Amino acid sequence: ARAQAMEVDQSPSVEYEDIGGLDEELREVREAVEDPLVNPDQFEHVGVEPPSGVLLHGPPGTGKTMMAKAVANETDATFIKMAGSELVQKFIGEGSRLVRDLFDLAEQEEPAILFIDEIDAVAAERTDSKTSGDAEVQRTMMQLLNEMDGFDERGDIRIIAATNRFDMLDSAILRPGRFDRLIEVPEPDQAARERILDIHTRGMNLAEAVDYAALARDTEGFSGAELESLTTEAGMFAIRDGRETVTMADFEDALEKIQREEENGTPGYA
Ligand code: ATP
């Protein structure tokens, strides 16, 4: 079970150009993660330590994982992903053990980008209820912070965590030397939605120019992941109709379908 919990990708295929919007956020991620890997001397010369860990926070499906993968790709680092929820285990010591394994693996694979999704699963503010489960989760988090403290000697390993629940985090993990670079990843705005639609229709066989601006106006509140589903759904309408090209009407039908499903609260694949 241990090996399955980790996703290892020696050469993820996501590129910076695949990410819509998030220019400023990506610049910050690159500065904190890429620069120390590619140009460690720079930090030594100036006499500052690079940020220890980067924490990406924001709503689901907005590109946090994508950014981590893209930096791994562009720096030729191995991408290692673990979900925080996987670190919450039944047996005492099992979570800490997984954390150790994770860092050992990163060391073997370096240069490596360690991506811990849903960090809130192990790093939520402690509540009053002092159940034994809570104590075990706390130990797992302490192990994670310990491993991060030993970072200086580890060389080419950078750590990125992500959460949709920033408000729940224990402030202990945000101290200097820990996740000390916070980057908010927002929902896409109009321009970003246009760009994301453009990106996800690149490989599609379009019958006509798609009015990205109009679609973006009608998709306020959509995440990047939801915009991607919209393009897939539009393609499905063309297929159902026996066509090989996708029209603007297919996008409109797809949007209508998604909005109807949202109203009914029943996402489905009719
Ligand atoms: P979660 O918090 O749910 O883990 P996330 O923020 O890590 O979500 P991703 O896994 O990066 O989200 O995004 C899911 C998919 O949605 C991506 O594989 C991509 O296809 C699409 N997507 C999300 N954001 C963007 C974006 N900014 N540009 C292009 N595609 C995007």
Break the fold down into its secondary structure elements and pairings:
Layout: H1 2-5, E1 6-9, H2 23-38, H3 40-46, E2 53-57, H4 64-74, E3 78-83, H5 94-109, E4 112-117, H6 120-123, H7 132-149, E5 157-163, E6 181-184, H8 190-200, H9 212-217, H10 224-240, H11 248-264
Parallel strand pairs: 2-5, 2-6, 3-4, 4-5
Antiparallel strand pairs: 1-3
Bound molecules: adenosine-5'-triphosphate.
Adenosine-5'-triphosphate binds at residues 19-22, 60-66, 117, 162, 164, 196, 199, 224-225, 228.
Give an account of the 3D structure:
This protein has 270 residues and is an alpha/beta fold. Helices cover 47% and strands 12% of the residues. It contains eleven helices and six strands. The chain has helices at 2-5, 23-38, 40-46, 64-74, 94-109, 120-123, 132-149, 190-200, 212-217, 224-240, 248-264, and strands at residues 6-9, 53-57, 78-83, 112-117, 157-163, 181-184. Strands 1-3-4-5-2-6 form a six-stranded mixed beta sheet, with helices on both faces. α5 links the parallel β3 (78-83) and β4 (112-117). α2 packs parallel to α4 and α8 (190-200) crosses α10. The longest helix is centred in the middle third of the chain and has 18 residues, at 132-149. It is globular and about 55 Å long. The two termini are 35 Å apart. The model has no long low-confidence stretch (mean pLDDT 91). The protein binds adenosine-5'-triphosphate. Adenosine-5'-triphosphate binds at residues 19-22, 60-66, 117, 162, 164, 196, 199, 224-225, 228. Residues 50-189 form the AAA+ ATPase domain. GO terms for molecular function: ATP binding; ATP hydrolysis activity. This is Proteasome-activating nucleotidase.
